[in-house]
Specification:
The protein is of the alpha/beta class. About 40% of the residues lie in helices and about 20% in strands. The protein contains 14 helices and eleven strands. The strands form three sheets. A six-stranded parallel β-sheet has the order 3-2-1-7-10-11, sandwiched between helices. Strands 5-4-6 form a three-stranded antiparallel β-sheet, with no helix packed on it. Helix 1 (about 1-15) crosses helix 14 (about 270-289) and helix 11 packs parallel to helix 12 (about 215-225). The longest helix is centred in the C-terminal third of the chain and has 17 residues, at about 270-289. The chain is elongated, with a radius of gyration of 21 Å. It starts with a helix and ends with a helix. Bound molecules: nicotinamide-adenine-dinucleotide. Nicotinamide-adenine-dinucleotide (NAD) binds near residues 24, 25 and 271.
């Protein structure tokens, strides 16, 4: 483990554009359960996984019905899906979130692309965060992608007037910003994430099972990036070879398909809340030396 920590510190300090990809695992040490880890919500309750796929269907069939259920505290949606919101809102960032934020302040980490909807990276001070699956505390127009803070829309008043679903000034229907299972990733987020992926020369993947698509495609896209390097052969000829342009590192409690398929260069197995602060300390040490 210590060797791998030294290795990632070396790789980070040699990188020109490092980015992090994060998943639910980075927030478990803040008390928010993941989906597929040993104590995950779906590991314990597989029915919840099946039902979660029904929400987007409900929204597509009738946005009005979706909103009526969403605003009814006794409905399935409120009780099973949105009941976790209270827990997430109370959660605080853990040392893993803070370490990534510090790496950004040192100019090493340029961007975080997170699957999490909990806002903990921003609470820890990270500035450039792409919320791939949206955010818990926002709404989004499904036509123009405009985001609204939750306090910008008075849903109770709209419901009372019988005007559900809420609408944007462009006329588009407004939904929760969180991306439902089966829902396409908003086009602005998808485009920015691919741009960051093409640009990075180091990708630090933290706390994700890497099985949710299209997010899990990002490391695969990064793996395809190659640069040309000149090399001298044994017979003294110069040849041009294509080598991977991106170092891909996983920090996760367990191996993932990225590990098994050799998409990542190496896995540092353990808790992000313990490993990331160790990395940060060594980076600081080298910078101040
Ligand atoms: P996942 O539940 O599929 O996988 C989490 C991974 O993290 C697992 O491999 C697990 O072993 C690992 N892990 C758990 N705790 C860890 C720790 N402390 N350190 C290192 N690794 C740890 O999560 P996913 O890949 O992000 O996909 C789940 C989907 O659910 C995402 O789309 C996400 O939007 C959503 N989700 C978000 C939150 C949140 O916002 N905090 C919570 C649950 C689910």
């Amino acid at each position: 483990m210590e060797d791998l920590i030294e290795r990632v510190v070396h790789d980070l300090l040699n990188s020109k554009y490092a980015i992090a990809l994060t998943g639910a695992g980075i927030s478990t040490e803040s008390g928010i359960p993941d989906f597929r880890g040993p104590d995950g919500i779906w590991t314990k309750d597989p029915e919840a996984e099946r039902r979660s796929y029904e929400i987007y269907d409900l929204f597509l069939k009738s946005p009005k019905k979706y909103w009526l259920e969403r605003l009814d505290p006794e409905s399935f949606l409120s009780k099973r899906i949105f009941s976790v919101f209270g827990e997430i809102e109370k959660a605080l960032p853990n040392p893993g979130h803070y370490a990534l934020s510090e790496l950004e302040k040192f100019g090493i980490l340029k961007c975080i692309i997170t699957q999490n909807i909990d806002g903990l990276h921003q609470k820890a001070g990270s500035k450039k965060v792409i919320e791939y699956h949206g955010s818990l505390d926002k709404f989004r127009c499904i036509e123009c992608n405009k985001r609204f803070r939750k306090n910008e829309i008075n849903l109770d008043a709209i419901k009372e007037k019988g005007d559900l679903p809420p609408r944007c000034e462009c006329g588009g229907i407004i939904k929760d910003d969180g991306v439902f299972f089966g829902e396409p990733i908003p086009s602005d987020v998808s485009r920015r994430s691919i741009e960051e992926t093409w640009r990075c020369d180091l990708m630090l993947i933290c706390g994700t099972s890497a099985v949710v698509y299209p997010f899990a495609e990002l490391p695969r896209i990064a793996r395809q990036r190659r640069v040309e390097r000149e090399k001298m052969t044994d017979s003294g000829l110069y040849v041009v070879e294509k080598v991977p342009a991106t170092v891909i590192v996983e920090i996760n409690a367990e191996p993932t398909p990225l590990t098994y398929e050799n998409i990542s260069d190496y896995l540092i197995q353990g808790k992000t809340g313990e490993i990331l602060p160790k990395i940060l300390e060594k980076v600081k040490d080298r910078i101040h030396r």
